[in-house]
Write a structure and sequence with these properties.
about 110 residues, mainly alpha
C-alpha cells in the first residue's frame, strides 16, 4: 500500500484545523469565564459543527490518499483540533506517514 502524498485538499485540512482550533479556544475561554452563557453556546455550536466538518474533511483527504489515517486518529483524540494541528505539524516537519511529493506540503495552491 502506497503512502499518502499531500495535495490541494491537505492545504484545506490545514487551514480548517486552525479555524477549528480558534473555535475550540474561544469555547474554552468563554466556558471558563463566568457570565458568558450565550457566547459559550455560540462557540460550543461552532466547535461542535466545525469539529464534525473537520473530521469529515480529514476522512475525505485520507480516502483520496492526501493525508495519513494517523491524522484522523490524532483528530479524534479527546483534545480534538489540538491533535489535528499537532499531527499536521509532525507531517510537515518530519514527513511522518507520507510519501515523497513533487511539491512541498506547505505550499498553497
Amino acid at each position: 500500500m502506497r503512502k499518502p502524498v499531500p495535495g490541494k485538499l491537505f492545504v484545506w485540512v490545514k487551514r480548517f484545523s486552525w479555524v477549528e482550533l480558534g473555535f475550540f479556544g474561544g469555547l474554552m475561554l468563554f466556558w471558563l469565564m463566568p457570565g458568558f452563557e450565550t457566547e459559550t453556546m455560540v462557540f460550543g455550536w461552532a466547535h461542535g459543527l466545525g469539529f464534525i466538518a473537520l473530521c469529515l474533511l480529514i476522512w475525505v483527504a485520507c480516502v483520496r490518499r492526501e493525508a495519513p489515517y494517523t491524522l484522523l486518529a490524532a483528530t479524534l483524540t479527546p483534545v480534538g483540533p489540538v491533535g489535528s494541528v499537532i499531527g499536521i505539524e509532525l507531517i510537515e516537519r518530519r514527513r511522518w506517514g507520507i510519501g515523497d511529493s513533487p511539491q512541498k506540503v506547505s505550499e498553497t495552491p
